[in-house]
Write a structure and sequence with these properties.
It is a single chain. By secondary structure, the chain is mainly beta. It has one domain: outer membrane lipoprotein receptor (LolB), chain A (Clam), CATH 2.50.20. It is 11% helix and 39% strand. The chain has an eleven-stranded antiparallel beta sheet with strand order 6-5-4-3-2-1-11-10-9-8-7. A hairpin with an 8-residue loop joins strand 8 and strand 9. The two termini are 24 Å apart.
């Protein structure tokens, strides 16, 4: 099985809209709304579809618990798992018994799962041409090796802070692009911390 690109990532909307009369004010307002969404979503589950740069598609289940806990459980038969335990993100490949681990702050996904971050300091609104869609690109200009993530939201009054996360596009420093599309969101449900544990497949393995 070929290794699957896991720069966790919905295709950005390409249409360009006319800028509002006060674009700076509108940008601040939109970024504040995204910040409010991230801080309001204490727990969430959703189904996801992941598409890599070669067009390969996988499905799975996303489980999120703030701050910093996330689990990408892939469909049956895919021996991959991604878990964030609040401190680090871990990718486990059970087929080759390989484990990779890196600080959450070193991943573009930190823009979504670290509610202490202020998007106004490292994000910008991308015009979509659709007033019902809000797209925000986030990256650390001082650390381009961390890559870029473009979060795409739909304006939905019944959802936290009036937004629902449609998905995102992640682009790593090697320009590997991964698209994530979310459906069937559920918010505020009880999620045990045990959901973010994993079994180490390496010799003399240990639980993470």
């Amino acid at each position: 099985m070929k290794r699957i690109a896991l720069a966790l990532a919905v295709a950005p909307v390409a249409a360009v809209a006319l800028l509002p009369a006060d674009p700076a004010s509108a940008q601040r307002s939109d970024l504040a709304q995204v910040n409010a969404y991230i801080r309001a979503v204490t727990t969430m589950t959703a189904d996801f579809t992941q598409t890599d740069r070669n067009g390969r598609t996988l499905n799975g289940r996303l489980t999120l618990k703030q701050p910093g806990k996330v689990r990408f459980q892939y469909q049956k038969g895919v021996p991959l798992l991604i878990v964030g335990d609040g401190r680090a993100l871990t990718m486990i490949d059970y087929e080759v018994r390989q484990v990779q681990r890196w600080p959450i702050g070193s991943s573009p996904l930190a823009a979504l799962i670290d509610p202490s971050k202020d998007l106004s300091k490292f994000g910008r609104v991308v015009q979509t041409g659709d007033p019902t869609v809000l797209s925000v690109e986030a990256r650390d200009p001082k650390r381009p090796e961390f890559g870029t993530i473009t979060l795409v939201f739909k304006r939905k009054p019944a959802s936290p802070a009036g937004l629902e996360l449609y998905g995102w596009v992640a682009l790593d420093s090697q320009n590997n692009r991964t698209t994530i599309r979310l459906t069937n969101h559920r918010y505020g449900i009880p999620i045990a911390d045990s959901a973010f544990r994993w079994t180490d497949p390496r010799p003399r393995g240990r639980s993470g």
